[in-house]
Amino acid sequence: MAEFPAISKLLNLFLNISFIFLIFLCFTHHFSSSGSSFLSRSKTGRNRDSGAGCGQLHEYSDREAKCWYVKSHEGCQNGGYIDYLQLFYCNFDPVLGYSALILWLLVLFYLLGNTAANYFCSSLEGLSRILKLSPNVAGVALLSLGNGAPDLFSSIVSFMSDETSEVGLNSILGGAFFVSSVVVGIISIFVCHSRVAVEKSSFIRDILFFLIALACLLVIIAMGKINLWGAISYFSVYFVYALFVSTSHLCCRKEELLGDSNTAAASGSPILPVSKNFLGYQTEFGRATEEEEPSVGFASDDDKPTLQEREEPLLPERRRRRRCLDLEPSTSSHMFVCRLLFFLELPLYLPRRLTIPVITAEKWSKPFAVISVTIAPVLVAIVWDSHSSELTWLVYLIGGLAGAISGVIAFFTTETSNPPTKWLFPWLAGGFLMSITWTYITAEELISLLVSLGSILGISHSILGLTVLAWGNSIGDLVSNVSMAVNGGEEGAQVAISGCYAGPIFNTLVGLGLPLAFNAWSEYPAYYLIPKDTSEYETMGFLMGGLLWAIVIVPKRNMKLDRCLGGGLLAIYLCFLSLRIARALSCLY
């Protein structure tokens, strides 16, 4: 697996270079095109109160007319900080426009998953440690939140407007369908030769709770409306599931302590899905095994420090050797390449590092810590101001004062060599808040880009949520769960399969329940009306069909994962996907 981190580092380098290229491209066209700004023009666009949408765009034949339409029609502003339709029709030619939007889509998916894995999860881990939460509670409450953060925030952002709510609903259902069918199917095919068996009680428990969650959602969609108490009751079902999981885990632990060797094997069932980083970096309760720092060290495993070495401060020579390519040292070309690659990896890393407080021993830096607590309140003020039209000066004044005071306190109360050991809660809470802020910004921009792509291509928003957004948010599940099942033996397969069901359960109940509760709260005491989309019944029917296939086939095969299970699940998903794509293409033509 030594080549996998190298591939991820190359991908990281590619995305950073793409980001630099996109910035250069946008600003070049911005200054060369008079009156054609690609930035969102008003706060109303970010609030997405446009109502009528951009439905008449394709009634115009030439790009000049479309450019005029997206400039003059406020409904074409889809809620982000960048006006993608104006960028596409007024600044770029079609080939360059599609290329830029696809590259930016990849960058946003990377930022969404990477921020959750490297910042959000580490803050959750630290909070669980200082709050002295038991492993059961930490796994049930915090680990699932870290895993589902991209889906959760994408869903919350999409439900902020009736125009895009179908994106969030379909992305949750599409992601759940993809993970429970495609990921489980691939795992079953890959491990079939090992004749790996999963634990029966946890497998049946997870699928039954998943079916219950989908049945509850089906009732809500059929009613077409929900009030605040109904939404709270819906996402509270997850806590019932968490209670069952924790109880069964504790029972297994007690039997193991009593010396029951037969039950000890079953205790390998995880409390909740494994945490994952973007493109499968495995984490342990939020701690990434590969630190997300600018690093171009494609060294072998022998060159990496051991656990004992990580506990000691890295010497400058050691740190430099880990950060440079395997070239002959002390040459001008070597130093030039190392410095060039180092700076090329900064664009996507530095903005978050300068605004998210991090106090882990591996990443501790006093200058970064002081700067981050100083800038963080200002960034929150900017985000707040972008969604509000009142008291702009007061928001920035409060943010500036809070940043200045926090920076001074951090400067005089921290050491250069070691992270703080007292008053950890404000640091971790600040890191948690800023991780949420960055995840929210990224999710908002991602939803805006997908809606714009739907307008450009003439594709339904629900199709994009069901495919592009669902697949992008599920990449980590695919790579990490398959890798764990293939390399972790029977216990690894058990962890992976449990994650393939527990993760979608969280996203279905909490990822949809919280946005429904927020919207129902805003309409209280009236009902929140759910936008009607008949295709959701089709999606849920195929999804429940895949779950029923699994719960029937696996017990008949003595809980063995084999090609029959995997092939059936993949066939169900491909039939569903072919049907939806065919219907979407028929609507286009």
Highlighted features:
70% helix, single chain, 589 residues, 3-stranded antiparallel sheet, 5 strands, globular, mainly alpha
**What does the main sheet amount to?**
3 strands, antiparallel
Q: Which class of secondary structure composition applies to the elements?
A: mainly alpha
The total count of helices amounts to 22
Mean pLDDT: 77
Give a structural overview.
The chain is mostly helical. It has 22 helices and five strands. The strands form two sheets. It has a three-stranded antiparallel β-sheet. Strands 1-5 form a two-stranded antiparallel ribbon. Strand 3 and strand 4 form a beta hairpin. Helix 8 packs antiparallel against helix 22 and helix 9 packs parallel to helix 20.
What are the SSEs and their pairings?
Blueprint: H1 3-32, H2 43-47, H3 63-72, H4 84-91, H5 94-130, H6 135-147, H7 149-158, H8 165-190, H9 200-223, E1 225-226, H10 228-257, H11 261-266, E2 275-276, E3 282-284, E4 287-288, H12 307-310, H13 316-323, H14 332-344, H15 350-353, H16 366-386, H17 392-413, H18 424-457, H19 461-487, H20 489-523, E5 528-529, H21 535-556, H22 563-588
Antiparallel strand pairs: 1-5, 2-3, 3-4
Helix pairs in contact: 1-5, 3-4, 4-5, 5-6, 5-18, 6-10, 7-8, 7-18, 7-20, 8-19, 8-20, 8-21, 8-22, 9-10, 9-20, 9-21, 10-20, 16-17, 16-18, 18-19, 19-20, 21-22
